[in-house]
Design goal:
The longest helix has 17 residues. 40% of the residues lie in helices and 27% in strands. The chain has one domain: Outer Surface Protein A, domain 3 (Alpha-Beta Complex). The mean pLDDT is 95. β2 and β3 form a beta hairpin. It is of the alpha+beta class. It contains three helices and six strands.
């Protein structure tokens, strides 16, 4: 799966989430597995409450965190691909 700038992303509704301060805990209803997210991952996850393009997500991240565009795009793309493989995010 290739994630481009206009790729649309939305988090799966099949997860239960609980905020733990700056972190986030998720549980997959389907698999019963738990996942933990740090502050940046939590931000990405919450940004996908509504469908968002990859470019818009990157713009939000670089305006919030001290990171350059290339590093942000690369790290975020890898994270989204990992979430997609675990059926945690919808990509279209």
């Amino acid at each position: 799966m290739e994630i481009k700038g206009d790729t649309l992303l939305k988090k799966s509704d099949d997860l239960i989430e609980a905020s733990l301060g700056e972190s986030l805990a998720l549980m997959s209803i389907e698999s019963g597995k738990y996942f933990g997210m740090n502050q940046v991952a939590k931000y990405v996850w919450q940004a996908m409450n509504e469908e968002v393009s990859f470019d818009d997500l990157i713009s939000k991240l670089i305006s919030t965190f001290d990171i350059d565009t290339a590093t942000c795009a690369n790290d975020c793309r890898n994270f989204i691909q990992e979430l997609h493989q675990k059926n945690m995010v919808l990509v279209r």
